Amino acid sequence: MENFNEQALAWLREHGLAILLILLVAVVAYYLVGILTRAISRRIQALDDVEDSERDRRTKTIFRVIHSTGVVLIISTALMMILTELGVAITPVLASVGFVGLAFGLGAQTLVKDTIAGLFILIENQYTVGDVVEIGGITGNVEKMTLRATELRDVAGTVHVIPNGEIRIVANKSRDWSRAIVDVNVTYEEDVDTAVQTLQEIGEATAADESISLLLLETAVVTGIEGLDQWAVRLRLMVKTLPNAQFEVQRYLYRQIRLVFAEKGIELAFPRQDVMIISEPKKDK
Questions:
Q1: CATH number at residue 186
Q2: Between residues 280 and 164, the one the model is more confident about
Q3: DSSP string, 13-44
Q4: Which of 88, 103, 124 is the last residue of a domain?
Q5: Most exposed of 153, 163, 189, 223 (fewest Cβ within 10 Å)?
Q6: Residue 179 in contact with residue 246, Cβ under 8 Å?
Q7: pLDDT at 159 (0 to 100)
Q8: Better-scored residue on pLDDT, 174 or 274
């Protein structure tokens, strides 16, 4: 028993203190990475006076990725050092196979592919945190991005985690500017010229309305007749907006169209079906 206690004390002195020191350094490094990335990110974002600008979102995205990557490296390094202290032969494996070979040996080819794809997304600035994008048929707001995956939250609140290596085509709906497109259906009996003129007036009034004009980059334009459908004449009103502001502008325009058209007696079309009843003539008895 005495022998065992002496061996335990010797092991604690030789390896236990080293493991404790590794853990302390890892914790300090973890907090230090967080503090440094936040400080540098805020310093870069403060270079312009525009809140939530393209530079701000890109800086936030890059430094979040740097932070997550740094945390992974710290944990991995600390884990390998602790295993070495516990007597696990890590060094020969790393020396003979190498990091890349070890990753492939563990079946991590997809991880390498996702990481490389994530690097190119950042380098090419395809999208940043806060952008509204469509990836693989899923449209949502980019809430989080790492070198491995991208998280999208759709309009229903569902979070979709997409591996970066699976991303082939990205549709960024909030880069530089957006466009609100509103299609209006009027009946064939209505005067098309009057309806077009009314839409133009609504567009001009929208540009003059202070509650919504700050979201516009130009005056609304009526393109004219966009289609002759089975039950309606389709007109189109569109306007260039600030990035990701098109949905709010569309809701405003739909409300104004409903109110103004009703006020002017212009009938909006809706799906309908005409039924004709033909009665046969009575036969003489």
A1: 3.30.70.100
A2: 164
A3: IIIIHHHHHHHHHHHHHHHHHHHHHHHHHHHH
A4: 88
A5: 189
A6: yes
A7: 93
A8: 174
Look at residues 57, 88, 119 and tell me which one is the last residue of a structural domain.
Answer: 88
Task: Establish if 63 belongs to a structural domain.
Answer: yes
Q: Which residues span the domain enclosing 223? A: 178-264
Name residue 216's beta-bridge partners: 241
In the chain, the amino acid numbered 92 is P
186 strand-pairing partners: 233, 268
Q: What is the pLDDT of residues 21-46, one digit of tens each?
A: 888 988 998 888 888 888 887 777 77
Q: How confident is residue 236, by pLDDT bands cut at 50, 70 and 90?
A: very high
DSSP string, 106-164: TT-HHHHHHHHHHHHHHHTT---TT-EEEETTEEEEEEEE-SSEEEEE-TTS-EEEEEG
How many domains, in total, are found in the chain? 2
User: Tokens 């967080």 sit at which residue?
Assistant: 34
Chain-centroid distance of CA 262 in Å reads 38
Residue type, 210: E
3-state helix, strand, coil in the chain (%, to 5): 50, 20, 30
- Domain membership of residue 75 (yes or no) is yes
Strands (E), 138-275: 138-145, 149-153, 159-163, 170-172, 178-186, 221-228, 233-241
Task: Tell me how far apart the alpha carbons of residues 270 and 158 are, in angstroms, rounded to a whole number.
Answer: 32
pLDDT in tens, 129-178: 888 899 988 999 998 888 889 999 998 899 999 999 899 999 998 888 88
Beta 159-163 vs 170-172: how paired, if at all?
unpaired
Considering the domain boundaries, does residue 51 fall inside one?
A: yes
Does residue 279 sit within a domain?
A: no
Give the contacts of 156 (CB within 8 A, at least 6 positions apart). none
